[in-house]
Amino acid sequence: MSTRSSGRGxxxxxxxxxxxxxxxxxxxxxxVEDHDLDNEATFRRLGFFDLDLSGRSADSVEFEQxxxxxxxxxxxxxxxxRFSDCLFESTNLANLRLEKSSMxxxxxxxxxxxxxxxxxxxxxxxxLSGCRLDLSSFRFTKFQNVVFDGCNLTRADFQNADLxxxxxxxxxxxxxxxxxxxxxxxxxxxxxxxxxxxxxxxAGAVVARQDLIALSYTLAGALGIHIEDDTDD
Length: 233
Hints:
The protein is mostly beta strands. The chain has one helix spanning 212-222; strands spanning 6-8, 14-16, 28-29, 42-44, 46-49, 57-59, 62-64, 67-69, 77-79, 82-89, 97-99, 102-109, 117-119, 122-129, 142-149, 167-169, 187-189, 206-207. The chain has a domain at 109-222: E3 ubiquitin-protein ligase SopA (Pectate Lyase C-like), CATH 2.160.20. The strands form 3 sheets. Strands 3, 4, 5, 7, 8, 10, 12, 14, 15, 16, 17 and 18 form a 12-stranded parallel sheet that branches. Strand 1 (6-8) and strand 2 form a beta hairpin. The longest helix is centred in the last third of the chain and has 11 residues, at 212-222. It is elongated and about 70 Å long. Residues 1-12 have low confidence and may be disordered.
């Protein structure tokens, strides 16, 4: 994906592709004994490979130019965490809970993120591809230059999130919640939008033609409009 491309969609906003992470020249291998999750810990240029870091709790942890592969962070609580120039592959982030945390220049691929809670945070220049994000929550989080590609986002919660310019491509958003979210220039292409909540908050969003039929039924229901078939009396 190009990091320099931009374009103006029909919604009038300029979209910029996420800036790619800056990988380190080399990585040292992290170990649980030397690199466990402690308050105010800083980890730089480390490979977290096949480690069990589940069920932890730490505040103000910083990860810079780190790579996660096969590591289990499920059920961990990280507040005020910061991830920059990181890569996540085939990692378990199910039920990971973060508040007031940030991601900058991160790529996340084929990661399990069911039940992830990323509340009141910041996500910028991030690409998520092939991830399982069902039942995840991003309430009050600000997104900038973010792409969701081929992700399962069923019943995800984006209430009060700022999704300005985000792109959802080939994603299942069935039952997702967008109440009071900002979606100016947010683009949906080849997505399942059946039963989404907060559809009246989608002013300024850009929806591909093939996705519009399911969305129109949801919008009609939210507005109390009865759609009559030709066979109805």
